[in-house]
Automatic annotation (TrEMBL):
Highest taxon, organism lineage: Eukaryota
Organism: Trifolium medium
Extent of the signal sequence: none
InterPro entries found in the cross-reference section: Cys_Synth/Cystath_Beta-Synth, TrpB-like_PALP_sf
Name the record gives this protein: Cysteine synthase 2-like
């Protein structure tokens, strides 16, 4: 294990697209794929360790460079969205 690393998660493309759509709809945050994956991971860790802990992540990119995928109906339908 890498020093300072608590865990690693294997996350799917679908999970970050679902999180991106949730954050836009519910929080007004238009995040990029790296930030969305960080959020997915933070939520999964929070669910696994339960209440009473602090989880920190970084929202490091916006969704602007992903508009071609976020607004592509064919691509989204392939993901089941």
């Amino acid at each position: 294990m890498i020093n300072g690393l608590d865990c690693c998660l294997n996350l799917s493309t679908l999970s970050f697209f679902v999180r991106i759509r949730f954050l836009v709809k519910n929080d007004g945050l238009f995040l990029g794929s790296s930030s969305a994956m960080n959020c997915v991971g933070a939520v999964r860790v929070a669910q696994s360790i339960g209440p009473g802990h602090t989880i920190v992540t970084i929202l490091c990119d916006s969704g602007m460079r992903h508009l071609s995928k976020f607004c592509n109906a064919e691509y989204l339908s392939q993901l089941g969205l």
